[in-house]
Write a structure and sequence with these properties.
This protein is α+β, with helices and mostly antiparallel strands. About 45% of the residues lie in helices and about 20% in strands. The chain folds into three domains: about 160 residues, 2-Layer Sandwich (Alpha-Beta Plaits); about 60 residues, 5' to 3' exonuclease, C-terminal subdomain (DNA polymerase, domain 1), CATH 1.10.150; about 140 residues, Dna Ligase, domain 1. The protein has 17 helices and 13 strands. A hairpin with a 2-residue loop joins strand 5 and strand 6.
């Protein structure tokens, strides 16, 4: 009798979890940079707007309005190609400080519903709203509230995917753009049916090389991948990639939201919408990632002892590399120097899908021991202090006068 009672109690948490599955949102702003420009400049509304370098200058498209996208213009496209596709396009310079301010407003909206927010970039984030249902309603209701808040406070639109895991939420948010809301079912069989008709290029992480291999095997949709022989798939694209893509095709994703609280490391990474081969563009994005990491370090009053590089190629193969700093640091100059050493040693002549920079081995700023400093000549220690002060002053100036008030120069050090 006692054993029966224990067993009955043991199954209650499992039933409870089944009755209350996880609910994730992926919120993605619609043509964010271009939409902000159209909001702030009414004369641009309804017209094909391209944010980025004008065609007479060598550069790429940072963002394109939906009016421009109808002509085949997309981000990371060379501006010279974009103007050929859409001769009537209006090119405007980017205003990053403005976009970041709007992004802060949007992130505050997210945080008013849940503390579990994981930004992916300036204009998109994952939210775990499982624990918010008692206050705000089910996943669909919360998504509708968030979209309404964004529209009322910023006069912009967002598309949202609601799903039982992060991968599915990401897939869903892109299905009814712009200004769309897509719900993914929770039942495993219904999830497989939901994904089955989608083309394989919609799978997050499949680069052009892997996509060609899959197409050569007749794998054109999620559905064909779901039923494809696993051994043949491993032989063609490798065991790790095969297992990953097979699970995703079934809608299986066990990841959880990663917040910035209690960090043991700090990192930023960017997944490009298209595989990027232009090394100058890759380097420019990478340097921005490094600056973001440095700013977060200083805000948290931390220093790092190790730098990390992450590169993912178009075939989904990924490398990570790391190196230690001679002294713990959080200044932009040292982070950039070491970060570029890592990149220059590992960047290959092949398309890049993802790039990231991070730091670990975090300690409170200013706690480097005297014995550590004694290992270096006085000039090195003085240089370390000078760089730290310069970065803190730079943060203050940018905070007061805007992100564009200072520009990186070769004469900083």
């Amino acid at each position: 009798m006692l054993m029966k009672s224990i067993n009955q109690r043991a199954v209650l948490p499992t039933r409870s979890m089944e009755e209350h599955p996880k609910i994730f949102l992926h919120v993605d702003m619609d043509a964010f940079f271009a939409s902000v420009e159209q909001r702030d400049h009414p004369e641009l509304r309804g017209k094909p707007v391209i944010v980025g370098a004008p065609p007479e200058r060598r550069g790429v498209v940072a963002a394109a309005s939906y009016e421009a996208r109808k002509f085949g213009v997309h981000s990371a496209m060379p501006s010279s190609v974009a103007i050929q596709k859409c001769p009537q396009a209006i090119f405007v310079e980017h205003h990053l400080a403005n976009y970041k301010e709007v992004s802060r407003q949007i992130m505050h909206i997210f945080e008013s519903y849940t503390p579990f927010v994981q930004p992916l970039s300036i204009d998109e984030a994952f939210l775990d709203v499982t624990g918010a249902r008692r206050l705000f309603g089910d996943g669909k209701t919360i998504a509708e509230k968030i979209r309404a808040d964004i529209r009322n406070r910023t006069q912009l639109t967002a598309s949202v995917g609601v799903a039982p895991n992060m991968f599915l939420a990401k897939i869903a948010s892109d299905m009814n753009k712009p200004d769309g809301l897509t719900l993914v079912p929770a039942d495993p069989d219904a999830i497989k049916a939901f994904l089955a008709p989608l083309p394989i290029d919609r799978m997050w992480g499949v680069g052009k090389v892997t996509q060609k291999k899959l197409l050569s095997m007749g794998i054109t949709t999620f559905g064909t991948l779901q039923s494809f022989d696993s051994r043949k798939l491993q032989e063609m694209i490798g065991r790790r990639a095969a297992d990953t893509f097979r699970r995703l095709a079934m809608g299986i994703d066990d990841r959880s939201i990663v917040t910035e609280r209690d960090e043991k490391s700090i990192s930023n990474e960017t997944t490009f919408g298209e595989d990027i081969s232009d090394p100058e563009y890759i380097i420019s994005i990478y340097k921005k990632l490094i600056e973001n990491v440095g700013r977060r370090l200083r805000r948290a009053e931390l220093e790092a002892t190790t730098a990390h590089l992450k590169l993912r190629w178009s075939d989904f193969s990924t490398i990570t590399r790391q190196t230690r700093f001679s002294l713990p640091c959080n200044d932009d100059i040292t982070l950039r120097e070491i970060g570029m050493e890592l990149l220059n040693a590992n960047l290959q002549n092949r398309p890049v899908r993802l790039i990231g920079f991070g730091v670990s081995g975090l300690i409170p700023a200013g706690t480097s021991s005297e014995s550590q400093l004694d290992l270096f000549e006085s000039r090195t220690a003085e240089q370390h202090d000078r760089r730290s002060r310069l970065s803190r002053v730079t943060d203050m100036l940018k905070e007061k006068y805007g992100i564009q008030s200072l520009r990186r120069g070769s004469d900083l050090e």
